[in-house]
Design a protein that fits this description.
Helix content: 25-40%
Structural class: alpha+beta
Radius of gyration: 13 Å
Strand order of the largest sheet: 1-2-3
Number of strands: 3
Amino acid sequence: MGRCREAGVMAGLLDRLRSVDSPDGGVVLDIENGKMFRLNPIGMRILSRLDHGTPAADIIEEISRDYSVDPQIARQDFENFLASLQGCGLVHPASDAGKPRHEG
């Protein structure tokens, strides 16, 4: 399915999304259907890193390191979060993603 199981497999944000960050997390708006999603700061961080093409393994390592979380737990949480994003239609399935949406 769409879960990241390999270090280089990524999901990409859909072009129809807009997001706003805040210290408390952020909001993601799907401009095609008007749906809004609230994310906590870690969720927004992951979403931003996905949007910039960061490999799953790098995101997981950062979360594990920065929040003192066991790497296996960080991987499981990341995969669950990614599955939720896909279920809400916020990211392309990993198999459809090839390049980051933004450069630089």
